[in-house]
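The aim of this short unit is practical: by the end, you should be able to scan a pair of folded records and say something sensible about each. We start with the first protein, listed as its amino acid sequence and then its structure tokens.
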Amino acid sequence: MKIRLYNIVVMTENMEKHNRSLLMIMYRNAVCLISCCVFGSQSDDGKTSVRDRFNARQFMSWLQDVDDKFDKLKTCLLMRQQHEAAALNAVQRLEWQLKLQELDLATYKSTSIFEIPEFYIPLVEVNDDFDLTPI
């Protein structure tokens, strides 16, 4: 139960970080657009300004960079959670096997951890995927 709750908290944190990054990109976009409109495309000496370099393609590339970054983080998170779930299951199986051996040495001496039914030691369920923007 504790690991499942921790996984939900980490997923929620990642969704919030993703939304915060998108808001920062939107803010940067708004500032660039306002500066282009207010200051115009010409500087004092008649040359084109650096502000002209901002366009929709650059904005889309910023959004794509944020999406790529958080997709990579999401993939790493899911792989780590699945690894933690498998490791926890293996430790619990070993503890189960040791307890069986303590109770009855003759019967359970050669019991493998894979012979223990999954009913007694369930694997923690980890989502295969989650939406970073659930809206």
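Turning to the second protein, read its sequence before its tokens, just as you did above.
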Amino acid sequence: MKPLLCKSLSLLKQSHARLSKTPSPNSPNLSLTTKLVSSYGKLGDLSSALLAYGSYPQNPEMLENDVFPNRFTFPLLLKACSSSLMLSHGIQIHTHSVKFGFNSNPFVTVGLIDIYMKNGKIKSARRLFDGMTERDVVTWNALLTGYSRNGTPEEVLRVYNQICKAGVEVDFVAVASVIAVCSQLRFLHQVLPSEL
């Protein structure tokens, strides 16, 4: 039974349950785990994707056979951690992404920035952003929305100005973030004018 052929979440879960009960000499298999994570992600069940990945131990025999998570595995897992605010899992996945050489992958980095920002780890997110060699509008937006979410409107405006200076074409997300913080700043200036 192949989980990637499952077109519904219930069929995937049934297949996964059967596979979990089937004895295998290489159980759990990282290649299969990666397929399960991908399938759960495609079907929108990020919690199950995270659980599937969590069932994979760090087995050196699998690594010796060149069976690794791929560039799609980590963004899905990070999205699962981010949507459920699971920072400890996100940190573990960050460590795994470095171990497997995906720390410079922009999709992984954006996922990490998102999870760190959602958990209030602004400095960690900023270090990741600053370490990137290439930044696109999605990367900048992750930083903008993170600062906005963490109640730092001045930093949102600072980053927006950096985007413009860098020549990156802004999109709806960037403009919406700036509009939202402008209203926050206006309110702050009305309430606490002497402190700003």
